[in-house]
Amino acid sequence: INSLSGTSPLMNVKNHIINGSFLIWQRGTSILIDSSAKVGTADRWVMKSPGGDARRKAHTHGNISFGNSRYYLEIDTTTEAFTQDPELSQRIEDVRTLEGKTVTLSYWVKVSDNSEDVYIDIKYKQNFGTGTDPETLISASSEYASSLIAEVKLPSGWTKKTHTFNIASIS
Fold first, then answer.
1. Among the residues of 56-162, which ranges form H helices?
2. Could you tell me if 48 and 57 are in contact, meaning their C-beta atoms sit under 8 angstroms apart?
3. pLDDT at 139
4. Are 150 and 122 in contact (CB under 8 A)?
């Protein structure tokens, strides 16, 4: 879109997810995840898993339109990883950014090995941190509120999922 004129429902829409198309990978396009520490993958995305790897893959579009996205994030976890719930996350700065608002999360998803049912939980966390030290705000995992939005069974073929939900007020 080069410009918008008049009124449009899209004029007040802001995407708070940065690098949602997995285009930018400054740390490399394949990341080994060998501990339960959080590891950077695509820029702004963090993966936590006791084992596996994450890599950038190019879409082979076929009959599906992924918009402007050329890439996706492929996550391959070891069997042991499922005992500790692998986690992919992105932080949105300032707990007040979306508090009390209705948001929509849309994404494309599939599982490559359909030998058993695989589910993912869609959650959001509001991290309140403690004090004013930026390091404390980032690492204060006990100072947050978490909400489960949906449990999604991964399909064997690319499927677009959309969830609309309310972010809790912080007051």
1. 134-139
2. no
3. 35
4. yes
Q: How far apart are CA 77 and CA 135, in angstroms?
A: 29
**Among 106, 113, 121, residue whose Cα is nearest residue 164:** 106
pLDDT at res. 5: 42
Radius of gyration of the chain (CA): 17
DSSP conformational letter for 169: P
At 62 the pLDDT is 67
Contacts 24+ apart (CB under 8 A), 105-108: 105/149, 105/162, 105/163, 105/164, 105/165, 106/160, 106/161, 106/162, 106/163, 107/20, 107/160, 107/161, 108/66, 108/69, 108/72, 108/158, 108/159, 108/160, 108/161
Q: Nearest 5 degrees, angle CA 19-CA 24-CA 30?
A: 115
Whose CA is closest to 113, among 84, 77, 80, 85?
A: 77
CA dihedral 117, 118, 122, 128 (to 10 degrees): 130
pTM for the whole structure: 0.74
Q: Which of 29, 146, 20, 35 is nearest to 81 (CA)?
A: 35
- Residue whose structure tokens are 């190019």: 58
CA distance 82 to 17: 26
Q: What is the mean pLDDT of each run of 10 residues along the chain (171 residues)?
A: 43 78 86 71 81 82 72 76 68 85 90 77 78 42 66 88 88 70
